[in-house]
Structures are given as C-alpha cells and as structure tokens.
Write a structure and sequence with these properties.
By secondary structure, this protein is mainly α. It has one domain. 65% of the residues lie in helices and 0% in strands. The protein is built from 7 helices and no strands. α5 runs antiparallel to α6.
Amino acid sequence: MTTTSTSGIRRAAPAAARLSSAAGWSAITIAALHIAVFVPQAPWSEWFDGALRTADADPESLSLFWALPGGIAVPGALMGLLMVRLGRQGQRVGLGYAAVLIAWPACCIWLIGPSGFIALLVPGGLLIAAAVVDRRSPETAAR
C-alpha cells in the first residue's frame, strides 16, 4: 500500500473551504428534492417488467426515466459529496465545477424556460464565491 504526504495539497482559505462545503450541501439538497418530487410519479413496475427495453414505453414513462435513474440527480449528489469532502479537508473546488454548474443550467433554462434548473445556480455561485474569497485571502496569497 502506498501512502502519500498531504503536504502537497494546497489548502484554501477557511472561508473558501466552508463555501465549497456549502455548495456541496446545496447540490445534495437539490438532488434529494429532485428525487423526492419524481419518485412517486415513476412507473416502477412497468420499468421492472421491461417496458423501457421494448417499444411499449410511452413518452411520459421515458421522460420520467430520464428524470430519475437516468438523470443527473445521483451524479449531482455524488458531486455534492465530493465538494463537502474537499471543503472538510480545507480545500476548495476548482472553477471548472462552477463553470459547469452555471453554464449547463443556463442552457437548460434557455431551452425550456424557468424550472428547477435555476436551483443549480446556487452551488455554482457558492463555488465562484469560494474562489474569490480564496484569491483575496492573505493566508493563501502568501503561498
């Protein structure tokens, strides 16, 4: 088993790490709410009977599939857990995550109008705030 030293890990300003954790918790909350809204509507018995693998699936069933198990909620929750972990380790999440969490919902909102996608702007904004705080912090500027 190989171990590595944590001395090579760049520490963020404490406020930036807290903002990264807050972004993670907001992403987890959004994913949980998304699942809670769509789980009762899902035709689970049809899906387990194989309707999605045949031509028998109706368009509503397909759209619910892509909103739940085929959607972004589970990967979004996992990404949120990663953000929380990094924040607890005193790190912040890179701006690439923030860019995706701003650009992707913005495109979706442009396509379908105001919807739950607006909520994803919250973790994206928190990650941008974490980057700004980290860059302005005297603790990290000296490094």
